[in-house]
Structures are given as structure tokens and as C-alpha cells.
Amino acid sequence: MNKRPNVIVVGGGVIGCWTAWHLLQRGCDVTLVERDTIGSGASSGNCGYICPSHVHPLCGPGAVINGLRTMAKFGGALSIPPRWDPTLWRWLWQFAKHCNANDFHQASLARHAILQSSRQQYSQFAALHAANIQWQEKGLLLVYRSDRDFQAYEASVDELRREFEIQVDQYDAKQICQLEPTVRDDLAGGWHFPGDAHLSPVKLLQQLLSEIKNAGGVIRQHTPIIGLRFDGRQLSSIQTDGGESLAADAFVFTTGAESDTLGRQLGINLPIVPGKGYSVTIGNAEGMPTTPMIFEDDHVAVTPLGESFRIGSTMQLTGFSRSLPPHRIELLKRSARRHLRLPLPVGPETQWTGWRPMMADGVPCIDRSPRAANAYIAAGNGMIGMATAPATGKLVAELALSITPHIDPHPYRARRFNNTDKS
To answer: Which domain range does residue 340 map to?
Structure first.
């Protein structure tokens, strides 16, 4: 009788949970190790968008100039506090090098593949658990106050339709109010992506955790990893802060924005930094939108979550700071007030901040470790972590088990960050 593969997944965010879920589906014995609690990082407080529309990375032609303009605005969506941080400077330099038409197109193709696969998997999962995860297929609406920016986005819409066959519907100010009556009537217009969906991140994580446990998976929370132990070309065990040595046949590291430290030990040079985001969830959705929207002038997103309402986004490259400045939450609310007819509802609030794992080229790393043949990494999904998690977990599980990948793994290879990689 063949022995069931024993796999340890390090990192209990949405990528780690989907990885564990796929490994269990393939008949593995799985232990999911998380230093805090499941979903305590960037996975729980995001806006829950399942958005195949988000094929374009941040690094594109003109992104550097646009970023500088945004930073110059008080309360802009992007901020980079000046400080001594060589890691961030190197990342910004690499980001700038990818802001060209060819790299932008290649990254878009890579993101499209993993977004489409994930969207299909979510549809299958939601067919069984829609109510439990608060799954809604209401699309995503990009809303503009600026007529110039609204019209300018049409070039991107043409490319999304032509290159990726993504359905996009144009709405003028009057039509937007018909689609979503809660918005103000002085907006320029909007673009609607009917193929997008949304869910409750917390409810999804709860459902995945339940299924992992029911399938025999072991959950180890509050278990920080402080070291790796190698035996030749194999990773033999990981060391916990409690003095334990956890051994397995294979290891998958899904440690988000902090993957660079473990990546270096695994022989992978990851250009990854934490992109700090914020959200506030109001426990009263009365009079609030039922359609997820992004207010493009401010880059602020809103999501209906059952009886709650979430406002989120912004990007701060502040390093590994856990501070939650009140003015950042107020900026989110201010944007919502500028776009909605009614005042924000009064209700209990949950404020959140988390680190998105931002890659310089906008494409996640999903690959085997160059140093250890039985170690794998899946990290760097950036602002589409929730939307790409199922396919990321499936692909890294396939690589770990030597199964033919369901999508081409080449765009997500680790060696693309080496100067010698010409492929």
C-alpha cells in the first residue's frame, strides 16, 4: 500500500487554506501551521472581490508618474513615508523597470490565467456553500467623478474585451443611478464588470477551515516558525518557537508579505514588500449599496456583506507597521460620503489593517525551491489574493505532488527574478 504524502503548509491565510484544501482533496495528510490565527493577516479584512476583471498589474506604462501624482494629493490612495529602507528602494527600482508595455502585457496574461481558473473554482465551491460564504454575483462597478478619467478608461476596456474576452458594460450618470440607486446623481459615469462576484472573506475562511478539519487536516495555530533544517537537497523539518521539530515529506510556504525571509533561506530572491491596506466594516448596511463598487478617483472600494458594509483599500508602503491611524479610516469614510446619497449608517465598527504581499512585477511566485526539492512557495498575490487563491493553491499542490498543472506554471516561476533568466 502506498503511503499517503505528508505535507506541511506554513501560513494560514486564504492561499494557505486553499492549498491545504487541494492537498486534502488529493489524498494527502496535511498540517496547516499558522503563527497567529487562521486568516489573521491580509485575508480577513479585504473587500472580498472575486474579480477576473483585475488582469492588469499596477506596474504599467505611466504608473510611476501617476503614482507620484497620487502621492502629491493630501489623503491620496498611495503614500510612501520617506525613510531609510534599502529593501523598499530596490523594490521601487524593480517596479519601475517593469512599467513598460511588454512586461505589462505578459503580467496581464499571467494574472488572467490564474484569475479565470479561480473564478471557475469559486463558482463550483459556491454551488455548495453560497449562503455560508455570502456569495453574490452582482459584478463590480467602477465609478468616476471625473469625466476625463471615465472616458480615458475606455482604451483599457477595449483591450480587456479584445485580449481577454471580459464583458464590460458602460453606464452614464443616469444609468448608474438605475443600476445602484444609492449613488449620487452628479457622477460622470461608470464601467460594470458583470462577471465579477464577491463574498465575505471571514465566512469563506470559516468554511474552508471547517472542510479542512472534516477532511482530516490538522490545524496548528499560534505556532511561529523560527528555522528550517536541511538534509542535503531536502528540507527535513521546520523548527517552531516552542522547540518542536515538525517533519514532513513536502512543505509549502504561503507566508504572504513576509515570504522574503523564508524565501532567501529556500534560495528564492523575492522582490516582495508589504502594501498596507485599511478597511472599516460597519455593522449596519441600511441604505447602503448592494453592488460592489470602486470609487476610482479615490481608489476606495465598498462591499455589501450581508447585514454589514465594508469600505476599504488605499496603499501605504510603510514597511511592517501595524499602526492604524484614525485619519486613514476617516479618509475611507470621506470617499464613501462623496459618492453616496445617504449618510453612512450608524452601527458598530470594526477597523482593520493588513499587509498585502506586493510583487514588483505584479505576478505571484508559485514554484519549487531551488535549494530543497521538496519545498515550495506560493506568495506575492498582491491585491488579488482572495480572487486568485483557489488556483494558486491548486497549482502549488499539483507541483508538490508531480501532477500535470492545470495552468501553465511558467509565468509564476521563481527564477524569473534571477539576472540569468532569459525565458
So the answer is: 6-417
